[in-house]
């Protein structure tokens, strides 16, 4: 017997919810959105949408005021993980158009030439042994893009890519665990991230620049943290895929996490997917929501497949 399948897609709808979990409206079409990010103004959404024929994602921009998508990247290669510059003027993204994953930047207006931000050669020279990095945020001062990088011996580490100067990346957080989903606080003084250093994924906050101060934000498992626009709240997903909220006080100090609502995001913790983004005021959340009646990806089984070789 021979079994085969087409692209294993995770179809969903990008749907706005309020803090109580009430569905408001959807954005774009149903599809496999591997990741997505709101612009600093909240008026434009950058999404990575998987082409079911090419099996690779391309980046699209959706005007949330006027509606309608426009294509940002074109080609058969993977282009994903769009991250907005603090002023909303540029977008940096990952692509393997040259065979290995590299970082490129382009005007958010869609025109102009693309700029190579980080080449495979520069990564290799810096000690990155598996160039498959995923950029997750751009520092508020515009100086750094932070990325998770899977290493052969240490798992996923957090690296900083300077956006000025020689742009040689350097490690921010490394072993003994996996570190992913890094996001800068709005004032640039802290980084929230996911780590499994305790044996399960939890949300932590570390000072920036790095120091010996660190806080665990989640209490019963969690991943994919995001900051509110004023830095007074952190959101994350629980192990049961509930959207959680934690108030942030001076110091900083972190309150007991509270449940906002149950989501229907795809299962699994991975650095390569975005499941939700909050509005700047934390009153709405755009969630990649799986349809309750979604059909499974089909698998075709061929009996006596060798008979076709004789024809």
From TrEMBL:
Signal peptide start-end: none
InterPro entries: 6-blade_b-propeller_TolB-like, WD40
Pfam families: PD40
Protein origin, superkingdom: Bacteria
Keyword annotations from UniProtKB, A to Z: Kinase, Serine/threonine-protein kinase, Transferase
Molecular functions (GO terms): protein serine/threonine kinase activity
PANTHER family per UniProt: PROTEIN TOLB HOMOLOG (PTHR36842)
UniProt record similarity statement: Belongs to the TolB family.
Name recorded for this polypeptide: Serine/threonine protein kinase
């Amino acid at each position: 017997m021979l079994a085969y399948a087409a692209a294993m897609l995770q179809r969903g709808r990008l749907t706005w919810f309020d803090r109580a979990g009430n569905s408001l409206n959807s954005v774009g079409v149903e599809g496999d959105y591997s990741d997505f990010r709101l612009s600093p103004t909240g008026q434009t959404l950058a999404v990575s949408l998987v082409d079911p024929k090419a099996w690779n994602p391309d980046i699209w921009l959706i005007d949330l005021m006027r509606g309608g998508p426009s294509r940002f990247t074109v080609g058969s290669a993977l282009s994903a993980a769009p991250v907005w510059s603090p002023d909303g003027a540029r977008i940096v993204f990952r692509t393997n158009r040259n065979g290995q994953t590299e970082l490129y930047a382009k005007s958010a207006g869609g025109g102009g030439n693309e700029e190579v931000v980080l080449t495979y050669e520069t990564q290799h020279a810096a000690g990155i042994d598996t160039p498959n990095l995923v950029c997750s945020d751009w520092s508020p001062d515009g100086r750094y893009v932070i990325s998770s990088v899977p290493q052969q011996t240490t798992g996923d580490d957090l690296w900083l890519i300077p956006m000025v100067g020689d742009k040689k990346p350097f490690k921010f957080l490394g072993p003994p665990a996996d570190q992913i989903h890094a996001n800068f606080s709005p004032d640039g003084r802290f980084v929230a991230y996911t780590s499994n250093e305790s044996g399960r994924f939890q949300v932590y906050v570390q000072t920036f620049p790095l120091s010996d101060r660190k806080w665990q934000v989640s209490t019963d498992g969690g991943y994919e943290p995001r900051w509110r626009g004023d830095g007074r709240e952190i959101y994350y997903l629980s192990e049961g895929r509930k959207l959680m909220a934690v108030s942030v006080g001076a110091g900083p100090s972190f309150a007991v996490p509270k449940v906002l609502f149950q989501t229907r995001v795809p299962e699994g913790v991975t650095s390569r997917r975005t499941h939700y983004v909050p509005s700047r005021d934390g009153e709405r959340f755009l969630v990649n929501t799986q349809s309750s009646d979604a059909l499974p990806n089909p698998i075709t089984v061929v009996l006596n497949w060798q008979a076709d070789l004789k024809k």
